[in-house]
Design goal:
Elements: E1 5-13, H1 18-26, H2 29-33, E2 38-45, E3 59-65, H3 68-75, H4 78-89, E4 95-103
Antiparallel strand pairs: 1-3, 1-4, 2-3
Length: about 120
């Protein structure tokens, strides 16, 4: 049974704040990589490509955590809480909107063997 948690966090910067938001999110990477259960934590920005013309917020964090508890502990770290308070929740923040979702790779009704 996989316990991995996959998180996709997408961000819509306020006009003219794209680079500032990207850099602010990049600044979160080093400490997240220090967390033992962090398997992937990378901020990306959308680029134009004729084979992928979908609509999305322009900045996306891709995260993989060893388990749900590790992901939830990460979300409660002071640095992460401060980032959201200052950039997303504050009217003076650089982010207009954010969408954070978590996923599992387990199929529905997976009968995981008990070991």
């Amino acid at each position: 049974m996989s316990q991995k948690i996959y998180c996709t966090a997408s961000f819509k910067p306020k006009p003219g704040k794209e680079e500032a938001v990207f850099k602010a999110l990049q600044a979160l990477e080093p400490n997240a990589h220090r967390e033992d259960a962090c398997l992937l934590y990378t901020v990306t920005r959308q680029i134009q490509n004729p084979f992928a013309e979908g609509e999305s917020y322009p900045i996306v964090f891709h995260e993989i955590w060893a388990n749900r508890e590790a992901f939830e502990a990460h979300c409660q770290r002071q640095e992460i809480q401060a980032f959201f308070a200052e950039n997303v929740e504050s009217p003076d923040g650089d982010i207009e909107d954010a969408n954070v979702c978590v996923y599992t790779d387990e199929p529905w009704n997976f009968d995981a063997p008990k070991v």
